[in-house]
Amino acid sequence: MGRLYYGSDELLGQPAFPGVQDPTLVYYHFRPARPANLLVTRDPDSGELNLAAGTFGPLTDHPYTICLHLHSSPHSALSLSAVGAECVVALPGRDLIRETWIPALPLPRGIFEAEVAELSLLDSQVVSVPGIAECPVNLECVVEFVRDLYGRATAVFLKVVAASIDEEMLTRDRAGQIGHYPTYEVDDATNIWGGSIERLGVNGELLECPGFPAGAKRGFNSDMTAWVADLRQEGYLSEAEGAALSGWIEELSSAAGRNPALRERVTRALASAAWEEWDDLHAQLSGE
Amino acid sequence: MAMTSKRFFSADEIESLQQGEVMDPMAHALRAPMAQLLLVTRDVPPGDSLCVRSTSLCPLTWKPYSQSINIPLDDERVVRNLSAPGAECVLAEPTRDQLRELAICGQRAPEGVCEADIARLQLCKSLYVDVPSIADCPINLECVVDHVERYHTHLIAFTRVVGASIDDRYLFSEREEIISVFPPNLVDDVLDANGHLRRRVSLLRDIIPCPTFPYAQKAGWGNDFNAWMCELRDEGYISGAECELVLAWRKRWDDLFMDAASPERAALKARLTEVSRLIVQGRWGKLHDYLREA
User: Fold this and answer.
1) Mean pLDDT of A92-111
2) Which residues, 6 or more positions from A281, have their beta carbon under 8 angstroms from its beta carbon?
3) If you classify domain B11-202 with CATH, what class do you get?
4) pLDDT tens profile B229-287
5) What domains can you pick out in chain A, each with its CATH number?
């Protein structure tokens, strides 16, 4: 097994590799698929509605905020350039592939892409911009932060101030929901003219990560010291073993404790617990 | 398209769905599963210790290639590492076979202990940054931190890719296979039968192509409406006269764009909308009729 390394310029130059026919293939390996969205904004000059397609990412849960990245030229970047600007971020389903593509077309500014796509508008509760009725989820948002990105794009942080979801989606289990929406920008294929065909995907099977005892009962973002306490509580560690391991960890936090041997001991013990090698863990702790 | 009924939520209702140890399923339904990566940082003050943390990322730009990552402010170790001047990091994409590793790195090891060691992940030298990559991960993005922003409960780090590596086993893999293998997308956290939290992830499948010419410019990602019309003319979808008519409307529209009160502007908007709609919907007969009557 080997690795190929690429510098940033090489990466953007769509690196070719002997035997790989499509020059975009390797390039897209380096770009994880991103959830697509339809963005409804109001043109700051004309006041007319505008629909753009893009992708978005997570920021915080409390409050619920998301991040958009907008190229500097399209109209939506102008619409969202000020804190307080409003918009709706609609999550399209797999039945809206054509409609998701249409806002990416080079339509003249002011022509409302939603009309071209024959999409229906959904009255918003809080913001002055409508959503897209055909989209399962609509997030009504307000701009809280804007940052220029290298003079070519803008990062926009949005706070979700209201939302709606298709009632029918709430009757589906989570696998049924994610199998429908949102779609994801996966890559571009090449058409017969050497141009791009965007390709979208949806989520498939649902997989579970291991939980306790391989990690804390509280799951992700837990402290491993809490995990050790959980193991003690549930009998995976005896009181003495738990105390020993907790003591090692506490000792690590002191200046005197930051020695490689102690660090190695703690690492090995936690690894045995994470991989559920209980006999090995007991043996490590029994010496104390 | 048949419209379905909607359930609406205010900001307060959304927040109430997110309280407690486990978010209400409706809160998750308002979210999109996000790619989960392993973030490798070097501990500050400088030493030989590293920290690896599961995180989501948000794509930002392609040129340069950049993204943001969001770290809870109470994760002081990673916040410190990313906030240091000249901070570097690696974003590694785990596979569907590395969910235990993902879970381990989703927890916070004691200071000085590296989660990658607990997860038994092998590290390898990066070429472009002074933070190692994770050899077991198919893709590693070597990054510099350009800016950090404290935003509500999180630190948002704006990172720029300065180099990357790929496991050569995946070089010849088709995209359909790649997306079914890595990276996993964070779906939600649920309580298992014992009342313990477990993270659920998913992988993509079912790649669906978007339309291409004539329903777009031949280049695909074009930004030239006039060029698109000329392409349609050249390929016989519209006549030369029809193309000239549409381009003349376009030019007049641009001239009148700022004159919102103009009746001519309103008429042009209707025409250009209708022409665009008929083209993208492939209704060529109706398009010709419309242009003839215009």
Assistant:
1) 94
2) A237, A241, A269, A272, A273
3) mainly beta
4) 999 999 999 999 999 999 999 999 999 998 989 999 999 999 999 999 999 999 999 99
5) 32-201 (2.30.110.10), 224-286 (no CATH)
Question: Would you list the DSSP string of chain A?
Answer: --EEEEEHHHHHT----TT---HHHHHHHTS--EEEEEEEEE-TTT--EEEEEEEEEEEETTTTEEEEEEESSSHHHHHTSSTT-EEEEEE--GGGHHHHHGGGS-PPTTS-HHHHTTPPEE--SSSSS-EETTSSEEEEEEEEEEEEETTTEEEEEEEEEEEEEEHHHHTS-HHHHHTTS--EEEEEEE-TTS-EEEEEEEEEEEEEPP-TTSS-TT-TT-BHHHHHHHHHHTTSS-HHHHHHHHHHHHHHTSGGG--HHHHHHHHHHHHHHHTT-HHHHHHHHHT-
Q: What is the pLDDT of residues B194-241, one digit of tens each?
A: 999 999 999 999 899 999 999 999 988 777 999 999 999 999 999 999
Across the interface, whether the CB atoms of B106 and A216 are under 8 A apart is answered no
What are the tens digits of pLDDT across the range A28-42?
888 899 999 999 999
Pick from B26, B59, B203: CB nearest A204: B203
pLDDT of A74 reads 57
Q: How far is B175 from chain A (nearest CA, A)?
A: 7
Give span(s): CATH 2.30.110.10, chain B. 11-202
Contact B258/A at CB under 8 A: yes
**Cβ-defined contact of B168 to A161 (cutoff 8 Å):** no
Question: Could you identify the residue written with the tokens 């209704």?
Answer: B283
